[in-house]
Each structure stands twice: as C-alpha cells, then as structure tokens.
Amino acid sequence: MKLVIATANQGKLKEIKLLVNNSFKNSIEVLSLNNYPDLPDIIEDGKTFKENAVKKAKIVATATGCVALADDSGLEVDYLKGAPGVHSARFAGKTQNDQANIEKLLRLMEGVPMERRTARFRCVIAIATPKEQLFTAEGTCYGFISLMPRGKKGFGYDPVFYVPRYNKTFAELDLEVKNKISHRARALAKAIDILKEIKTKSLLYI
User: Fold this and answer.
1) Where are the domains of the chain?
2) pLDDT at 42
3) 32-49: burial string, b at 16+ Cβ within 10 Å, e else
4) 94: left (phi over 0), alpha (psi -120 to 50) or beta
5) How high is the pLDDT of residue 72?
6) Which of 47, 102, 157, 171 has the fewest CB atoms within 10 Å, measured from its CB?
7) Which class for 192: exposed (0-12), middle (13-18), buried (19 or more C-beta within 10 A)?
8) pLDDT band at 206 (very low <50, low <70, confident <90, very high)
C-alpha cells in the first residue's frame, strides 16, 4: 500500500513519516508531493483547518491513485482571538517565512503578561482513498507564547510555543518527545487507526 503525504514541507513530512513508519514497521510506502512534481498547486482557501485538509486529501488521492493523507494545522492565540489560525503559514504575508511570522506574533503580543499568552496548536488530518472514502481526525496541544524564541529544532512557530510541563518550547524538545504530545502527533495517532482499518479491511484494491 502506498500513502502519499500531501505536503512538500520537509519538517512536517519528517514528523509524519517517522510516526507512520514506526506504526507500520515500514510496511507502507510513504511518499510525498515531492514524488509528484507535476501535480498543480492546491489553493488552501478553506475557512477551517478541516476544509483545507479535506480538499488537499481528495485532490491528491484522485490525482495519484493512492491513499492520501493531508493535514492542516496552525496556531490559535487566545489574546489574538484565535489568530493566526488558518492563516498561520502566511501570517506575515504570502512571501514571508517562519521568522517573519514569529516576529509579527511577538510584536502583537508585546507587553502581554505570561498568564494571558495562552495558545494552542490545532491539527486536522484528512485521509482520502481513490474510491472516494474520506476520514478525518483532530488533535490539539495547549501551551503559551513565550516572550522570545528558544531552541533550534522544529519549524514554524515551534520556537515560541512554550509547554510548561517540560519547561521548554517545541523547538527545544527532542523529536521523540514532541511526537508524543504535539497536536499533529495526537491527530496522527487517530489517523493511524484509520489507516490500519483501510489496510486490514481492504477498503481499496491494492
């Protein structure tokens, strides 16, 4: 069975691929959008994480003829009334990068005390098959926005997402730890069960 992860983001791909390979003992061939360079760009214009994840999974499953797993995730900051939310990746503008997004976030949070810097990472994973079956799973991880970036690991907002339990940001955590507590890991744990159902019950012809 082939599974196409609907992303070209190397950080995200690394996290997902590790969890899938560990769960299936490398019995599933894990691919990504990098294996299908001719696929058109998918415009993520949904109003929710779920809408974006479902759209990506459906398009990739149809285009590749394989089971597709897509996620949409982002940061929701209570002080900013849930922003950046679905706009997390382009918070500082379409041509900006992770550093610019973090700088904008910290600028907007300047002077806000730690107890009011509550936030959550939210992830929705959609799995689509070529037979047009669709499944979704969700995961959330709660924390705070740190006063300044810390750590060199991870990607996105990881350097400013502080987890009190470990007294570290996501960017300071080892990948093994992050893959137990992150929003994506929690959603993916549910998605793994869905993939096992697909694989064992032969819901598609492979």
Assistant:
1) 2-200
2) 87
3) bbeeeeeeeebebebeeb
4) alpha
5) 93
6) 47
7) middle
8) very low
Strand blocks (E) in the chain: 2-5, 29-32, 67-77, 118-128, 134-145, 161-163, 168-169
What pTM did the predictor assign?
A: 0.86
What's the token pair of residue 100? 């610019």
The residue among 55 and 39 whose pLDDT is bigger is 55
Assigned token pair, 48: 């929710």
Neighbours of 108 (CB within 10 A): 15
Give yes or no for a cis peptide into 84 (omega within 30° of 0).
Answer: yes
Q: CA geometry: angle at 13 spanning 177 and 11, to 5°?
A: 65
- What gap in Å lies between CA 96 and CA 158, rounded to an integer? 17
The CATH fold of domain 2-200: Maf protein (3.90.950)
Q: Per residue in 147-158, pLDDT tens?
A: 999 999 888 999
Q: Known catalytic residue: 72?
A: yes
SS3 category, 153: coil
Which residue among the candidates 38, 41, 72, 78 is catalytic per the annotation?
72
Token pair listed for 15: 């996290």
The pLDDT, as a whole number, for residue 67 is 94
β partners of residue 123:
73, 139
